[in-house]
Write a structure and sequence with these properties.
Blueprint lengths: L1 H21 L2 E7 L4 H16 L2 E7 L4 H13 L4 E4 L8 H9 L3 E5 L10 E5 L1 H15 L3 E7 L5 H19 L3 E8 L5 H14 L7 E4 L2 H13 L7 E3 L5 H9 L5 E3 L2 H17 L11 E4 L4 E7 L2 E3 L4 H4 L8 H4 L2
Parallel strand pairs: 1-2, 1-3, 3-4, 4-5, 5-12, 6-7, 6-8, 8-9
Antiparallel strand pairs: 10-13, 11-12
C-alpha cells in the first residue's frame, strides 16, 4: 500500500514539473558568429532571461544565411514565442520574419536591422553616433592631415550608418581642405586580414604622404591597420579608431597603439532585450526600465526601435566605462 501511495505522489510531482516546464517562457536566440562580442551579448541575454524565469534556446549560424533560416524553423518547432535574430544577411533574413509571423512568433532584430519585412522590433546601439564619436575624437587629435577611412562590410547596414556618422562630422573639414582623404573603402566581412592588406597597399602607393588618422569601423579592422603601419614603422602618433571594445584592442588602447574603441555594452543590450522578450510573451503590466521610443525604416515599415548610446573608450576612462560591467577585468588585459 505504501508503495502505491509513493507511486501516486511521485506521479503527481512529475506531472507538476512537466506542466511547469511546458509552460515556461521559451525564447530563441540566433547568433551570427562566434566572435567575442556576439558571445558576450548572448551570455548577458541568457543570464537575464533566466533571472526572469525564461528558457533560452540558441543556435549559431556562423555566417551561413541558409543555415540560419533552417535554425529558425527548428527553434519555432521547439515552441519559442519570441525569436531574437542577429541576422547573417539583413535582406534574406526577411524570410525568417515572414515564416515566424505565420506561427505567431515575434521577431526582434538584434544589432542589425532586417530589411523589407514587417519586423516587430529592432534593438541596437546607434551606429550613426558610433561614426560621429569616432570622427569627433579624430578631429580633436588630428584637426588637419591625411586620413584613411575603413568602413565595414558593404552588406551590413551598420557599415553604412557608421559611414554616415563619420562623414557628417568630417565632410566640412574635407570640403575646406583641412583633411585630405588618402583612401576610403568598404572591407569585406569586416576582416582584419583584408584591412591589413589594404593598409599595406595604401602605405606603398602613397609613400610620400604621412598617414595622420585611420578611422576604422571595428576593432578587427583597427588591428589590421595597426599591423600594417607597424610593419613600416609608421604607427607613432597616428590616430586609430575601432569599435566593440574587444580584449585585444583594449590591450592596444592601453599600450597607446589604438587610440580609441567604441563600447556597446553587451550587458546593457542583452539585459534589455531579455526584458523586452519576456514582457512581450507574458504581457506583464510591469513597466520596462527603458522606452521603445524610436523607429527605424527598414524599406517597408518604420520598425519600433531601441537605440542605445555608445561610449568612447580611451586608456584613461576604461576602468569606469568597461570594468564596471564585469564582463572584462583588468587581469584579462594583462595576459
Amino acid at each position: 500500500m505504501k508503495y502505491y501511495k509513493y507511486l501516486i505522489v511521485t506521479t503527481i510531482l512529475l506531472t507538476m514539473i512537466s506542466c511547469s516546464e511546458s509552460n515556461q517562457v521559451k525564447i530563441g536566440f540566433l547568433v551570427n558568429k562566434s566572435q567575442e562580442l556576439a558571445l558576450q551579448n548572448l551570455n548577458s541575454f541568457v543570464e537575464r532571461a533566466k533571472q526572469l524565469g525564461a528558457e533560452v534556446l540558441d543556435k549559431n549560424a556562423k555566417g551561413d544565411d541558409a543555415l540560419q533560416y533552417k535554425q529558425a524553423l527548428e527553434l519555432m518547432d521547439q515552441g519559442v514565442k519570441v525569436l531574437i535574430l542577429s541576422s547573417v544577411n539583413s535582406i534574406s533574413a526577411a524570410a525568417i520574419v515572414r515564416e515566424a509571423h505565420t506561427q505567431d512568433v515575434i521577431v526582434i532584430a538584434y544589432d542589425r536591422i532586417i530589411k523589407n519585412c514587417d519586423l516587430d522590433y529592432y534593438v541596437t546601439f546607434d551606429s550613426r553616433k558610433v561614426g560621429e564619436y569616432m570622427a569627433k575624437e579624430a578631429l580633436a587629435q588630428k584637426p588637419t592631415g591625411n586620413y584613411v577611412l575603413f568602413w565595414g562590410d558593404k552588406s551590413d547596414n551598420n557599415a553604412d550608418l557608421i559611414k554616415e556618422g563619420v562623414l557628417k562630422v568630417l565632410q566640412p573639414h574635407i570640403d575646406n581642405g583641412k583633411i585630405n582623404v588618402l583612401h576610403k573603402i568598404y572591407v569585406e566581412d569586416w576582416s582584419g586580414i583584408n584591412a591589413e592588406y589594404e593598409m599595406d597597399r595604401i602605405v606603398r602607393l602613397t609613400s610620400e604622404a604621412k598617414v595622420d588618422a585611420v578611422v576604422t569601423s571595428s576593432d578587427g579592422l583597427a588591428r589590421g591597420a595597426i599591423s600594417a603601419l607597424k610593419k613600416y614603422n609608421l604607427l607613432e602618433n597616428v590616430f586609430v579608431s575601432g569599435q566593440n571594445a574587444e580584449k585585444e584592442s583594449l590591450k592596444m588602447v592601453l599600450a597607446g597603439e589604438q587610440t580609441i574603441s567604441i563600447y556597446k555594452s553587451p550587458k546593457k543590450m542583452g539585459y534589455s532585450v531579455a526584458e523586452l522578450a519576456v514582457h512581450l510573451i507574458t504581457k506583464s503590466d510591469e513597466e520596462l526600465s527603458f522606452n521603445v521610443n524610436d523607429s527605424v525604416y527598414n524599406g517597408r515599415i518604420k520598425v519600433p526601435s531601441i537605440l542605445f548610446d555608445p561610449v568612447v573608450i580611451t586608456n584613461s576612462n576604461m576602468k569606469n566605462k568597461i570594468f564596471s560591467d564585469g564582463l572584462i577585468k583588468m587581469q584579462d588585459l594583462n595576459n
